[in-house]
Amino acid sequence: MLYREAGDFKTSYAEDNQTFPIKFDRVGYYVVLAVAVLVVPFFINDYWASAFLIPFLIYAIAAIGLNILTGYCGQVSLGTGGFMAVGAYASYKLMTAFPWMDMVTVTLLSGLVTAAVGVVFGLPSLRIKGFYLAVATLAAQFFLVWLFNKVGWFYNYSASGQINAPEREFFGLILTGPNAAAATQYLFCLAFVLVLAWVARNLTRGTVGRKWMAIRDMDIAAEIIGVNPLRAKLSAFAVSSFFVGISGALFFTIYLGAVEVGEAFGIQKSFLVLFMIIIGGLGSIFGSFAGAAFLVLLPVVLKLVGVDLLGWPTDIVAHLQLVIVGGLIVFFLIVEPHGLAQLWRVTKEKLRLWPFPH
Amino acid sequence: MKLGTLTIAAIMAASPVMADLVFPSLSYRTGPYAAGGIPFADGYADYFTLLNQRDGGIGGVMTRVLECETGYNTEKGVECYESTKGEGSLVYQPLSTGITYQLIPKTAADGIPMHTMGYGRTSAANGAIFNNIFNYPANYWDGASIAVNYLLSENGGSLEGKKIALIYHNSAYGKEPIRTLEELSAIHGFELTQLAVDHPGQEQKSQWLQIRRERPDYVVMWGWGVMNQVAVQEAANIRFPMENFIGNWWAGSENDVLPVGEAANGYKALAMHNVGDDFPVFADIQTHVVDAGMAAGNGDQIGTVLYNRGLYAAMLAAEAAKKAQEIHGVADITPQMMRDGMEALVVDEALMESLGMPNFGPEFTVSCENHGGSGQGKVQQWNASTGEWEILTDWISSDRAVIDPLIAEDSAAYAAENNVEPSCG
């Protein structure tokens, strides 16, 4: 009933290759876009912006970034938190050194800086694989956090080692700092998410993405058919770090406004983003969104239900959250390694046949 | 998801607006800092329960403690702030320097006061710039100076040529005293070694190895959570003389020394209030809160150092609320009125006596120019055989001549960064 494919014929290659070949999906996508852009900004309040929507959008970018590297190119990375920190500190240095610079430029440049750092730390991936690469990226994580804590230049020698985002405007609207309207911040993040998700989707289904996937599936075979592993792996590191850097920059400038590197970008952040793509689905853009939404929303929903509705003690609910997330990760790894995205795919297949399965 | 949002929004909108005084408690009963967070949260909640049960609230209006779990995590702290600020929250006490930095601009924009008692941003003591942030009765820089003043008195007034090592939590919290200690080391001629310990602080072998090699005369610690007990254990392991090891007031609770047992005997720490449960107020807590089965948490923290600190924080908040009711002549005060009450707060011996807490904390007065209180502290020492902290000194004052210029400098930098116009009155 939901999917009526009768009469939906494709007459050109472009139509056949579109991201949403089924009309219902396409319409659904545009409806979601319209709601996100035209409806949500009018109803958003501070609570929903800072408790759910803005972190969701920012983590979605980070998850897409990590998914490009881990899900598409098969290079395990535990350095996401460190790379987010690079994005955050790059944007802080840019904002304080060039106060006239607009926020779009700041954010994009932060992404580029992170991409460069990512390539450097990606070099070992040419020699080492799997667990060993994970350990090398773990080293990047600890090194970067240590660096931002140790070298005063990165935090402008402030007494506490914290970085604070100064107030910036965007087309006359306050974008960063406490006086910014929730809708402005939301739309700014949303714009980045839409553009970056579109870029990621088109990268991953084009030549570049196919090279990444060839490397992921079997690097020797890929090399034999003419994929240059150096360029494929390093481009994956660069693009991935670019995404992660932008999410780190937005995390600092838009979402938190003040950041302490060890606390905000520690190893637990790397794991959080990794859990997002495991639960959401490796190698899927939709999965990155689903995983980010799930892990951002879960604590909030648990708190609303457990503490506000049922009146349970706050610590029980906090512990329950750890139990649930841990259980879910085990569950997904055993039952559905491709995550929520695969669940959605299966559901869709069923719905297309429904109500007349074979 | 959309439907869920609507339902929750509907529930939140439908709940009746209760006329009560809301004191949010951004607590942490989970995570590596829970050992410190639990007693503080219990003490904070119990005092308001006591006021409700014994006095019928403050000025006839019942109080309500809104607890929200932060896990010492800034993101959750922000979520907690946003979810509780709409409920008429009067004053925030996040018990985390990281969350404090997060909330300083937010509370300024929303006009809600914040009280960071002995933590947070030290230069917030300058009320002309930090209008709604308070950090009385003492701040980190006072703490650093008190520790040095204590050591001065131990050494006949001179620390010339002595070596002092600072072992600190590598975060905004732990870095706070460095500026002051550097300044003081230049004045008093002692040599300062800085040793950073990364979050959460279980890994300190290399730092203590360095202490063992360099043999400093004194070790000063700025630690919190699991870091403290590990440090005390490591000090015991290298047989560092405990009486030369001084923690700040966040590194001086039972949790920090009990796991080390007998070896922790003699460890010292700063104190910003008195210890033990030998105060009349604890009898009231027993009758009205514990016996009524309304004690927060497990009810097993009463009388511990950090429970007393939570109690003290709640007492100061309640007194400021009373002051606000007095100034504005209304019982149901707003956050703005609360701020006025905090700025006019006077804590003297007569007041503490009347509250059943004689000589519990220092006497101090808050004004617009000084949100930082008297800046006094005591030194306490752990007695492992009795399992009690013993107060060694009377109130020690900090070196205002060193600290005031530092506060002026740092707050001016904040004002310039954020376009704040300093003003009083």
Automatic annotation (TrEMBL), chain A:
Regions that span the bilayer: 27-44, 50-69, 76-92, 104-123, 130-148, 180-200, 236-259, 271-296, 316-335
Name listed for the protein in its UniProt record: Amino acid/amide ABC transporter membrane protein 2, HAAT family
Molecular function GO terms recorded: branched-chain amino acid transmembrane transporter activity
Primary localization class, coarse: membrane
Membrane topology summary: Multi-pass membrane protein
Subcellular localization(s) per the UniProt record: Cell membrane
High-level lineage: Bacteria, Pseudomonadati, Pseudomonadota, Alphaproteobacteria, Rhodobacterales
Cited Pfam families: BPD_transp_2
GO cellular component: plasma membrane
Keyword vocabulary terms for this entry: Cell membrane, Membrane, Transmembrane, Transmembrane helix
Top-level taxon: Bacteria
Automatic annotation (TrEMBL), chain B:
UniProt cross-references to InterPro entries, sorted A to Z: Leu-bd, Peripla_BP_I
Database matches in CDD domains: PBP1_ABC_ligand_binding-like
Signal peptide span: 1-19
Keyword Transcription regulation: no
Pfam families: Peripla_BP_6
Residue ranges of every copy of the Leucine-binding protein domain listed in the record: 26-384
Assigned keywords, A-Z: Signal
Highest taxon of source: Bacteria
Family to which the UniProt record says this protein belongs: Belongs to the leucine-binding protein family.
Protein name according to UniProt: Amino acid/amide ABC transporter substrate-binding protein, HAAT family
Organism per entry: Jannaschia pohangensis
Upper lineage: Bacteria, Pseudomonadati, Pseudomonadota, Alphaproteobacteria, Rhodobacterales
